[in-house]
């Protein structure tokens, strides 16, 4: 499954990049992230606690910042194993930052794959959950930068 979208922030690109590279800030913007542990500047572990449809899942997640090109791009690899069931989450994310109307346009692409019980739920259910997580992430990002007139568009 691939998800793409844009978030506009009333903040300089360098400030947005610095915040996105701050693992604690980023984790605070993602619903359900707990127990963030920084291994080094490019490797992290965390627990992702989420509910999809009628099922509740907890994932042990590892994140690797594969590439960072300040203040333009960040690429990360995410792998997760759900606790208590067989399956796996793998994802690659690419975030691009561009100056836009005195602020910053954050464009993102996430390519995710799920196997096991979670993967068997089907694309429509998983896509709806992902869209909800995207919306909440954008809201938290805008709130963090105290944007006065938020603009957000997401596309799939």
How would you characterize this protein structure?
The protein is an alpha+beta fold and 156 residues long. It has one domain (2-155): Alpha-D-Glucose-1,6-Bisphosphate, Chain A, domain 4, CATH 3.30.530.20. It is 27% helix and 53% strand. The chain is built from 4 helices and 8 strands. It has helices at 13-21, 23-29, 116-119, 123-144, and strands at 2-9, 33-40, 43-52, 55-69, 73-82, 87-100, 103-115, 151-155. Strands 2-3-4-5-6-7-1-8 form an 8-stranded antiparallel β-sheet. Strand 6 (87-100) and strand 7 form a beta hairpin. The longest helix has 22 residues, at 123-144. It is globular, with a radius of gyration of 15 Å. The N and C termini lie close together (9 Å). The model is unreliable at 147-156 (pLDDT under 50).
Chart the SSEs and their pairings.
Elements lengths: L1 E8 L3 H9 L1 H7 L3 E8 L2 E10 L2 E15 L3 E10 L4 E14 L2 E13 H4 L3 H22 L6 E5 L1
Antiparallel strand pairs: 1-7, 1-8, 2-3, 3-4, 4-5, 5-6, 6-7
Q: What is the CATH topology? A: Alpha-D-Glucose-1,6-Bisphosphate, Chain A, domain 4
Mean pLDDT level: 89
Task: Identify the CATH class.
Answer: Alpha Beta
Number-wise, the strands total 8
In order across it, which strands form the biggest sheet?
2-3-4-5-6-7-1-8
Number of helices: 4
Low-confidence stretches: 147-156
End-to-end CA span? 9 Å
Q: Number of domains in the coordinates?
A: 1
Helix/strand-derived category reads alpha+beta
Assigned CATH superfamily: START domain
Helix content: 25-40%
Globular, elongated, flat, extended or rod-shaped: what is the shape?
globular
